[in-house]
Structure formats: C-alpha cells, structure tokens
Amino acid sequence: MEITPALLVASCMVVALIIYALMGGADFGGGMWHLLGTGPRAKEQQKAISRALAPIWEANHVWLILVIVLLFTGFPNAFAVMMTALHIPVTLILIGIVLRGSAFVFRKYDRSEAPRRRWGVLFSLSCFFTPFMEGVTVGALATGDIRFVDGQVTTGFFAGWLSPFALTCGVFAVVLFAFLAATYLTVDPESEPELRDDFRRRALAAGLCLVPVAIAAFALSRNGAPEVFAGLTRWWAPFLLGATAVFGAAALFLLWTRRFALARMAAIGQVTLILGGWSLAQFPKLVTPDVTFANSAAPAITLRLLLIALALGGLFLFPSLFFLYRLFKGRDAH
Amino acid sequence: MDDFLFARSQMGMSLGFHIIFAAIGIGLPVLMAIAEAAWIRTGNPVYLDLAKRWARGASILFAVGAVSGTVLSFELGLLWPGFMAKAGAIIGMPFSLEGFAFFMEAIFLGVYFHGWDRLSPWWHWTSGVMVALGGVLSGVFVVTANAWMNAPAGFKIVDGKITDIDPVAAMLNPASAHEVIHMTLAAFVATGFAVAAVHAFFLLRDRQSEFHRRALGMALAVGCGCAPFQVWSGDYSARAVASLQPAKLAAMEGLYHSMKGAPLMIGGVPNDKTRTNAYAIQIPRALSLLVARDPGAWVAGLEEFPRADWPNVKLVHWSFDFMVACGFYLLACSIAAAWLWWRKRGLPDARWFLRSIVLAGPLGFLAIEAGWMVTELGRQPWIIYGVMRTKEAVTPMPGIAVPFISFTVLYLFLSVIVVVLLRRQFLEAPDSK
Ligand code: HDD
Ligand code: HEM
Ligand code: HEM
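Predict the joint structure of the above. Result:
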C-alpha cells in the first residue's frame, strides 16, 4: 500500500483518538468512581480522584479537539457527513462535556458542603453520559446505516446510532474507561495502600465486566457492523484479537497479584490494541460504507502542511506533556 | 423563526458566550504574571496573594472557556456542514495550530494552578508566561480563520469548484492583520478594566487597603496602557473594512447614498425603505476624512449593492456606534488616569475616578460583543464573503430550535453560577467586607 499524506494524517488522527481514550477516557472513568465511592474510605476515594484529575483534565481534553481539528482540516467531507447524520448524539456529547467540565470546577470552587455534593453528582452523571454517547457515535460510523449519496446524507438523523451495535459500543466505552481509571488510580503515589486496594477491587470488577460486553459487541458486529466484522476476518485479525485478549488477561492477573505499575501498562496496551484494531478493521472507511478517507481527503497541499504542523507541534507538545506528568504523576511528585 | 435563523442564533449565542471567557483567558494570565513577577522582585506578600487570588478566579473561568470552545469546534460542522466541507481544507490550518496553542495553555495551566509549591518561583512564573502566550496565540489563530471568512484568499474557483488551495495565503488574508491586532488589544483592554473595576469598587469602601490598591494599579496599567492603541487600531480596522467590504462599512455608518465628502453619522434610526438615517448627529465630511484621509473623498453607500446583499443595517450601525462610544469612554478614563497619576505621582484614588472605573468595568466586554456583531452581522448574507451565502451552508437538520434553546438555557445557568461563585470569592479577599 502506498503511503500518502492522507494516510499519514489519518494515522495521526487514530493516534490522537487512542491517546484521548487513554487520558481523557480515564478522566471520565475517575468521575464514574467518584459517584460509586462506597465503604469506609468513600471520602478518601473521592479526594484521590479529584486530586488525580485536577491538574491534567484540561490538557487531556485537548486531544479530542485535536481529533476534530484534524478531521475537519484533513477530511472536510467526512466531517460534514458525520456532523449532519450524527447531529443529535454529537449535541448530547457536547452537553455532557460542558456539564462535566463546569461541574468539576464548580465543585472544587464551592466551599459549602451541600452544593459540593450536588456538583459532585452532576459531575459523575455527566462522566457516565458523555463516554456513553461517544461510544454510540463512534459505533454508528461502523454500522453502515449512514448513507452519503450524490453529496447528500440520505438516511436522516437517526440512522446508525440507535442500533444495538452502537448502543453496545456506548456501554463498552463506559466500562472500558471505568476500568482504565481504576487501574491508574492503583498507582497513585500519594494514596494509602488501603485506598489503592479499593481501586484494585474496582479495576478487577470493571475488567471482568468488560469481557461480556466485548463479546456482545463482537457478536452484534456480524450484522450490526458488517464491514468491521469482515475486516476482523482478515489474516492478521486472529493475531490482533489474540494479543488483545492476552493483554486483557495480563492486566487482570497483574492487578490480582498487586503489580500495579505493570497492570497499568497492560491496560494501556489492551486499549491501544482495541482501538487500533478497530481502525484497521474499518480501514479505509471513515463512515461506512460510502465515505473513505481517500474520497473525503483535503487537497495534498493542505495535508502536507498539516503534517508539518503536527511534527513541529509535537516537538513542543511531547516535552511539555512529559513535564506536566512528571510534575504531578511522577515518582517524586511530592 | 425558521431553522436557518435558529442556527445563526445558536452560533452567535455560543460565540458571544465563549468570547467573554476567551478574552479573559488572554488577558488574565498577563495580569497574574505581572503580579507574580512583582512578588518575586520585591518579596512583598501582597503581590503573591494577589497572583493566587487572580489565579483562583481564572481557574473557573478557564474551565468554562475550554468547554464552550469545544462546543464551538463541533458547531462549525453541526450547524454549517456546507461551509466546513468547502472551507475546512483552506482554513483548517489556523485551527490546527490553535489546537497546539490550546495544549500549551492547558498544560501550563495545570502546572501553574497546581504547582505553586512544586516549582521554584521563576519556573512557576515561566509557566504562567506560557499560559499567557498560549492564550494570545489561540486567539490569534482563530481570528485569522474569521478574517478569512471576511476576506477570502488563497484559492481559486474554477467551474464552481475550489482549486489551487494555498492555506498559508488563506491564513495571511488581507483582513487578518487588523482583526488580530484589534481583537488581541480588546482582550487586554476588557480584562484590564473589568479587573480594575472590581478593585475600584472595594477601594470605594476602604481606600487604604493595600491589597486593592496594588491590584488596581496593575489592572489600570494594562487597561489604560492598551486603550489608546485600541482606538488607533479601530481606525485602522475601519479603513481596512472600507476597502475590503464596502457594503459592511456603509452599514456600519448607516450610509445609504454614495457621495463625495460623506458625513459621519452618529446614532439615528437607519431605515432601509426610505434609505435615510433619521435623527442622526451628522459631522460634515468626517467619514470621508476618516476613511480616505481626505474630506472630499467619495464613499460608497449601500445603494451601490443589490438589496439582497445588504446586512442588517440597524443592528450593524448601532453596534458599531456603541463600540466606538465604549472605546472613547475607556480612552477618556485612560487619559484621566494618566493625568492623575502624573499629578499625584501615585495611584489615582479620587472618588469620582474610582466611580468612573467601576462604570468602565463591563464596557470593554460589551464593546467586544458589539464589535463582533459588527463583524459577523456586517458579513451577512455571506458566510464566505462574496463566495458562499450563509443559507447555502446551513445544516439540513430540522428542529434547530431545540439545541438552540438547550444551549441557551445551559449557558445562562453556567453564567449565574460563575457570577455567584466569583462574587463570593471577591468578598473573601482581604479588606472586602
Ligand atoms: C474592548 C473592546 C473594543 C473597543 C473599545 C473597540 N473595539 Fe472595535 N472591535 C472589537 C472590540 C473593540 C472586537 C470585538 O474585538 C472586534 C470584532 C472583530 C475584530 O476584529 O475586533 C471589533 C471590530 C471592529 C471593526 C470591524 C472589523 C472587521 O469587520 O473586520 C471596526 C471597523 C472597529 N472595530 C472599529 C473600532 C473603532 C473605530 C473603535 C474606537 C473607538 C473601536 N473599534 C473600539
Ligand atoms: C468569539 C467572537 C465571535 C463572536 C461574538 C461572533 C459572533 C457571531 C454572530 C453573532 C454570528 C451570527 C451572525 C448571523 O448569522 O447573522 C456569527 C456567525 C458565525 N461566525 Fe462568528 N463570531 C465570533 C468569532 C468567530 C470566529 C473566530 C469564527 C471563525 C471561524 C467565526 C465563525 C462564524 C461562523 C461559521 C458563523 C455562522 C455563519 C454566519 O452566520 O455567517 N466567528 N458569529
Ligand atoms: C475570536 C474569537 C475567539 C477567541 C479570541 C478565542 C480564544 C480562546 C482562548 C484564549 C481559549 C482558551 C482560554 C480559555 O479556556 O478560557 C479558547 C478556548 C477554546 N476555543 Fe476559542 N476563541 C475564539 C473563538 C473560537 C472559535 C470560533 C472556536 C471554534 C472553532 C474556538 C474553539 C476553542 C476551543 C476548542 C477551546 C478549548 C481549548 C481547551 O480545551 O483548553 N474558539 N479560545
């Protein structure tokens, strides 16, 4: 296969999406556990979550913006199709994002007890709702129900995203992010051992829940997302599915045996493989079945400049991100 | 109202909401950096307290700015898919660069807000400067995208298809310079005067408070320092508009008939039917003088353009006059401040002066809103000036009233909460009983 600028931009988009899931997704997961805080250490759990999120959630959120910007610059037609056909779920995502971000800061800001609790609940609910809608929206792209014929979206505003497959993807995103967040929180250097153990149990529970949801999504994809399903029968697919399963099992095993740092690595690998594998299976479609990344791409000059901008931006971005994480998540974070 | 009007209203409402937080996101980090530098140099703890309190206020405003900005990036496609399908490849560039500016801002914001005791003072200060830089850059990039809508460049149209795209030329379009300068200054002016107003308000109760005196001094330095340049750059903008978008200029001025030696019309009630601007105060030849630096110069009136290409003259003209009035009021405040400062060799704190600063507080932001009404309503009926009509770009989605009302209610709710929380914080500051 020829390496074109469009292919490179599309790859960067997938990478940004994966990082968003790993970082921003985990922030949503943290918000879910905020609501599900139980037991004698419920308050401490909430404190640990809020401490983990506060310095980084805004930076993590920018990955979503990057995905969108790359999409509308690199593949303007695909963006127009998605935003037209998926107007409703995308609007719901936005409402969730607005409520999540503002409820989180309002909660930190408000000093009195009762409103703080209310903001906390609103924050957590939007942390369930937003990734659910994100999963639904991404799932809808794979269903093949959204048709784009002669420059028009012909399938209206409800196609795809209400299908069982897309809804299962929503549930999958929620459970996945909850699993990621709990796994990360077991590594928090500022937490007491008991607190880490609370998160270990939560990570194990979420990790186990992920198995049936993943199987359901896979089973539904046969009819619900035929092109992705077909993609998953190519020669490399067994290796990919096998590797994903190995990483998933390893994450659970390492959590069980309390090797948290390694468990986090395994979870990261697992999520990367899931999203990377999905992208490969759906390749080269952005919106199945009509919109491919080749037929919606911007002219070559735009894509080339975009790649240059990404390279230069990356030179600045990755050191800064490294600095941020070292400062707040590193071993010497105290 | 039809869906098209709801879509326009939703876009305008979302942008009008975001711009408040965006302007603060550009201006406030600069104030924080000045206060922190003063603390590091003098060791006076009042400055540190000030930097920390401003940062605390900023943390809530930034979060709302970030989420409302996210809504905008999606709304470009949700509401104007036809526009993005055409324009994405041409003006995506500044948006991508803006993305990196957001990263810069968000990353160092995290460092700044939560790193007070994890970094040495100078490193902490440097991260504050990075936040300020990220804010200015994100504003600059997104405004070039808007400038392109007003003065499209960097592509050709052959048989109705866009070809020969040059994203760099599109970014450096003829309207970029004046919009970028005017908007960046506006953010400093508006933030400077708004912050000054809060502290002037508390000084009116207790004029000895060192905390509020120092704060007022810094905020005034930024606001009053930029206001004269703001008025100068407004004149530059107006002359650029006169050559790039003469129909917009005619609407701004309420000028229906082309003429030599055109008068400047202030206020009045523009009437599209009679093509007159009743009750306006007229300054003979002033418009020609301002636009062409020649009192006898010819200025195009709206009659030069087909009726279908007129923007909403009333709104554009009134918004423009309101912005200019605010500009001159802020300029007068700056001159008064400089005069008092020079006379007293110290912070001006006469009661009448503090009162006029309190009054100036909201005016910068109101001028920003009015200025954007001029730019955006004055661009109509085009979404890409002279190339694509707004109506051709709108989404086919029916029922846009629903998201419009939802986002309006949501933003009203957020505004109320932000105001309540900020008010509470102001009252917690030293000497603010
Ligand atoms: C603090 C805010 C503020 C103040 C005091 C002024 N303006 Fe302004 N003006 C803006 C804030 C603003 C703005 C909101 O930032 C705009 C919208 C788009 C832009 O580039 O800047 C704007 C736009 C804008 C435009 C339209 C540019 C375009 O459509 O391309 C003109 C002609 C002026 N201004 C002129 C003036 C004049 C002559 C002023 C003086 C007295 C003035 N402005 C004061
Ligand atoms: C934040 C400051 C801004 C404000 C307050 C503002 C205000 C408005 C308003 C009131 C409208 C509705 C106009 C109408 O339909 O009659 C509008 C439309 C629009 N604006 Fe802006 N604008 C701002 C900046 C920008 C920027 C930087 C862009 C960059 C791309 C932009 C893109 C658009 C688009 C795509 C529309 C919809 C199409 C149209 O109505 O022409 N705006 N804006
Ligand atoms: C002239 C108008 C605008 C200016 C000056 C401006 C500037 C800014 C600034 C300074 C910020 C960060 C500060 C903060 O969070 O408070 C910001 C946030 C944001 N703006 Fe705007 N903006 C404008 C219009 C727009 C438009 C039209 C869009 C959409 C296309 C947009 C998209 C965003 C996004 C996505 C963010 C969030 C970044 C984050 O997550 O931190 N802005 N804007």
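Residues B 8, 11-12, 15-16, 18-19, 76, 80, 83, 142-143, 145-146, 372-373, 376-377, 379-380, 383, 390 surround protoporphyrin IX containing FE (ligand 2) (CB under 6 Å).
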